[in-house]
Amino acid sequence: MNLRVRELQHGSSTGKPVANSCSVVMNCQSNNQLRSFMRMISASGSKFCIDSKEVTAREYISALHRLGIFIEAKHLIYQGQIEHIARQTPEERVQLFEIISRTCEYKAGYEQKKDQLIKQEESLVELYSKRRDIAHEKRRAIMEKEEAERYEMMRHQLVCLRPSIVHP
């Protein structure tokens, strides 16, 4: 059997649509409440319903967003898209993944926190450097103090021994 894309689109080998409209219904349970979402596409346009009540596209999308369903994300990969995605640069693929996973919404906050972390790390390095310098200065001051004490002790001994050296 030789299956063609147009046959998949129209549902038959005649090349004509088998129906005048197409609809998709999603039933989901949220907070112990069963909700029904329907989208119908016909020649005259699209129709959106929530719990059998017709709503605008914006209300429909907003209700799905509240449930954590983001229809902007491309969960379906259309014919030819695989090659397009495969030819993208790694940066473009990361950007696509961020859009699909909705992490791009947190990117500004992440960058701000990252900058704060870098500043804190720089501040920490500076504090450690100051601490090291202070410890070095302290050791040097202790050594100078000990040297001054030795000098004073030797000077005191010299003063005490000087009369005996001068008058034997």
Helix run count: 5
Cα separation of the termini: 131 Å
Oligomer: single chain
Query: What is the CATH level 1 assignment of the domain at 1-71?
Result: Alpha Beta
Radius of gyration over alpha carbons? 40 Å
Q: How much helix is in the residues? A: 55-70%
- H/E topology pattern: HEEEEHHHH
Q: What structural class do you assign from the helix and strand content?
A: alpha+beta
GO molecular function, one term: DNA binding
Organism: Parascaris univalens
Keywords: Cell cycle, Cell division, Mitosis, Nucleus
Protein name: RecF/RecN/SMC N-terminal domain-containing protein
Short description:
Keywords: Cell cycle, Cell division, Mitosis, Nucleus. This protein has 168 residues and is an alpha+beta fold.
Characterize the structure shown.
This protein is of the alpha+beta class. Among the domains are: 1-71, P-loop containing nucleotide triphosphate hydrolases (Rossmann fold, 3-Layer(aba) Sandwich); 72-101, no CATH class. The chain has helices at residues 5-10, 57-66, 81-86, 90-101, 107-166; strands spanning 21-30, 33-42, 45-50, 53-55. Strands 1-2-3-4 form a 4-stranded antiparallel β-sheet. The chain is rod-shaped.
